[in-house]
Amino acid sequence: MSKTKKQVEEITAMEDDFAKWYTDIVRKAQLMDYSSVKGCMIIEPYGYAIWENMVSILDKKFKELGHENVSMPMFIPESLLQKEKDHIEGFAPEVAWVTHGGNEKLQERLCVRPTSETLFCEHYAKVVHSWRDLPKLYNQWCNVVRWEKTTRPFLRSSEFQWQEGHTIHETAEEAKNETMQMLDVYHNFFEKYLAIPAIKGQKTESEKFAGAESTYTIEALMHDGKALQSATSHYFGNHFAKAFNIEFQNRDNKPQNPYQTSWGCTTRMIGAVIMVHGDNRGLVLPPAIAPVQVMIIPIAMQKEGVLEKAKELEGRLRKICRVKTDISDKSPGWKFSEHEMRGVPLRIEIGPKDIEKNQCVVVRRDNLEKTFVDLNDIEVAIPELLEKLRKGIYKKALERRNQMTYEAHNFEEFENIAKSKPGFIKAMWCGDENCEKKSKEITAFTSRCIRDNEEKIDTKCAFCGKEAKHLVYWAKAY
Amino acid sequence: MSKTKKQVEEITAMEDDFAKWYTDIVRKAQLMDYSSVKGCMIIEPYGYAIWENMVSILDKKFKELGHENVSMPMFIPESLLQKEKDHIEGFAPEVAWVTHGGNEKLQERLCVRPTSETLFCEHYAKVVHSWRDLPKLYNQWCNVVRWEKTTRPFLRSSEFQWQEGHTIHETAEEAKNETMQMLDVYHNFFEKYLAIPAIKGQKTESEKFAGAESTYTIEALMHDGKALQSATSHYFGNHFAKAFNIEFQNRDNKPQNPYQTSWGCTTRMIGAVIMVHGDNRGLVLPPAIAPVQVMIIPIAMQKEGVLEKAKELEGRLRKICRVKTDISDKSPGWKFSEHEMRGVPLRIEIGPKDIEKNQCVVVRRDNLEKTFVDLNDIEVAIPELLEKLRKGIYKKALERRNQMTYEAHNFEEFENIAKSKPGFIKAMWCGDENCEKKSKEITAFTSRCIRDNEEKIDTKCAFCGKEAKHLVYWAKAY
């Protein structure tokens, strides 16, 4: 038991130091390691397996909706990046520049892609000629670079893995539908697969993507009350098409600029999972993305028949879930802590006494609840328990978010809540950027998203008292 | 039929201009497009789907053998790249350098990874402490950059997609076994999945990887008689470990340097498929990697019941293969040519007369052989025909390679063959680099690989007449 204790004690309690708790988990659960380039991380096998599961679910969904994967170059010539004014202004301060190839100075600097709108546009200008060529529904899984000053594993890194969808359409309506459809795909992925309640909404002008006509976002509330922008979907209108001379013959045989979207999500989602579901024992992984869903831990492994029974169980379970048996020479207690820290959803304990009774003990990671399961029923019981865990962690996260969501009707209320209670504040907003600045400067709360579908809570702006236009969610953000 | 002809005529005949034939295929089958950065290509959906199929087969095999995927940074600090002398000498002339992040000059230049040995070594030095930590069997799928002067789509590009496996072991023997095991994985992938006969062997000193103790390769013969180095597997011994201070406590509790391997294959394999199986109608894709294995083409589509029957067939076939129905408004003849050009292994023609007879016509892409298949037997017939096609294209490639493999016993013979007959030359070699230089300078043939398992054909070196050490395959190479 001393070993067990020691390992658990190694994780800083989240109440003591949330940032340190987070770092402890990413390092001790072996999700990532730092590299010698600031802000560039090594994603270790366990972390990468989580990412692979995320990719696999999303990629399947994208393809079902008709999207096709492509691979664009990682370099963008400076002149190409500059073609869309807002876009270059937004990204220029944070790109990495390649100036030399081998021993020769390049004639034109190349930036390492921070995002690939310009590359897709250049390609679309070449291949889109007629309305028959539309839509193009392209996506790519790749790495991008944004030269960040302050970095944190998964949440903000100079290089990160992501997917970027780029689509091009005949009509504005079709492009707008695509934008909203992909926002829904992300929202559904968060709710159903990551078991994270997420709020959908529109970004304000000051928070939207550089070059977009409108940006939509899903925002999730972390355990410490900060919001995490978790995926975004952008509608571009046709001004990228104009800047890049993308033109097609429409159904009336007239030249026309098409309409575009882009949408993306990143390894940041791993950070969201940690900060929504994790606890002081470590990670808690939603079953859909857990590299190992069930860990079998044989008790009194040296006794006759135990290992055989454990392996037999593993063989049966392999058909319905991702399962492993821990046959290392560590003590069972040590193994319990280790796999709890790594967030394995269920563990099965099986020893000589269990085998006598033809049963095993299944322990849920989220609430440590024990269930005795008849070995004959294991194929039914395990999927049920995984589903219960998923619902359980979703409910817990939703309740916490509801408890941490407040309403403010004027700036005094807003300031008081912002000072004392981490979480979301719902407050009406007039639409003026100055009110956003006021909030940011005084409370460090920024507008997370406009929620026009939700019932308005007041008629006046909480910041200036003028007529309110939108209900907005505000929070401190990662 | 005029349309059909036109489309086929668009591809240059390989006998007229092999390089142009190749370029025609990659462009017209929509595998790739050029970007505005020299040597960096856009892999279009059809090309990328081929790559995804390759990745999926190999990734599964790697994992079955215990390998785990990770993600390393794309940047390597100059000082890190310099740690292993041979390695930096080999790669420095062809790396891209990042010198600025945003508006600031970096304190140290970063190279965009040309390969990641140095990054893996730095990580291993941190995480490998005891023999219990070994082996580490890591792999990553990523993009790398090598600043090439002359580039060709898929075959040699400044940026390319690949996988790089990096493993670290307790003993030299274990590492050597891993090196050979992974060479076999590649060889098997080429023979069974790509239907490409490939020759396994060891590289000579002058052709081996920068920093490796020994390099193994698989070499395939293209349609034009040139060889393509198609995948490599390297044994590093422990000198990378020494250069990077990787040390572990061995089973006798003594500090020891571990042994390493690396192995990789790239999007170049798409080039191999084109140049081994392609013909003057376009691509011929092996079924295992074909994005669409069966294309159904309804004949007299407007007639009652035809489209329904085609769709019904598609529904049944979807359970056993990757199938699509072409319902575009092009003529059947046009569709035949188009899908032939894109290398779809089988096409099914189904029209009113076929439906009357409860049959369809299946046409093989490789030899255009027609088979009438009873609709009741379709689930049996299609997999059989796909397998026949795979065997057929393998056999054709093998026969061609055998016909194009010659023996030379002295330099006169060697020169005569090299001048007049493209292909492999088998010739004995003394082991002296000067004989390789002689061959390269006079005939442009380079040593492709040492074949010590094959029967020696002479006792003397074909170049200098001294005592021969090895049987070597020689060829002009891509």
Describe the protein's topology:
Two copies of one chain form a homodimer.
Chain A (H helix, E strand, L loop, with lengths): L1 H8 L8 H11 L3 E3 L6 E3 L1 H20 L3 E2 L5 E3 H4 L3 H7 L4 E6 L2 E9 L4 H11 L8 E10 L13 E11 L2 H22 L5 E4 L11 E8 L5 E11 L1 H5 L4 E2 L5 E2 L2 E8 L1 H10 L16 E5 L7 H12 L5 E3 L6 H10 L4 E5 L1 H5 L2 E6 L5 E5 L3 H26 L1 E3 L3 H10 L3 E6 L3 H11 L2 E5 L19 E6 L3
Parallel strand pairs in A: 3-7, 15-16, 15-17, 20-21
Antiparallel strand pairs in A: 1-2, 4-6, 5-6, 7-8, 8-14, 9-10, 10-11, 11-14, 12-13, 17-18, 18-19, 21-23, 22-23
Structure description:
2 copies of one chain form a homodimer. By secondary structure, chain A is α+β, with helices and mostly antiparallel strands. In chain A, 36% of the residues lie in helices and 26% in strands. The first copy, chain A, is built from 15 helices and 23 strands. Chain A has helices at 2-9, 18-28, 45-64, 78-81, 85-91, 117-127, 172-193, 239-243, 268-277, 306-317, 332-341, 352-356, 378-403, 411-420, 433-443, and strands spanning 32-34, 41-43, 68-69, 75-77, 96-101, 104-112, 136-145, 159-169, 199-202, 214-221, 227-237, 248-249, 255-256, 259-266, 294-298, 323-325, 346-350, 359-364, 370-374, 405-407, 424-429, 446-450, 470-475. A 7-stranded mixed sheet of chain A has the order 3-7-8-14-11-10-9, with helices on both faces. In chain A, strand 20, helix 14 (411-420) and strand 21 form a beta-alpha-beta unit. In chain A, helix 1 runs parallel beside helix 11. The longest helix of chain A is centred in the last third of the chain and has 26 residues, at 378-403. The radius of gyration of chain A is 25 Å and the shape is globular. The first copy, chain A, starts with a helix and ends with a strand. The interface between A and B is large, with 52 and 52 residues.
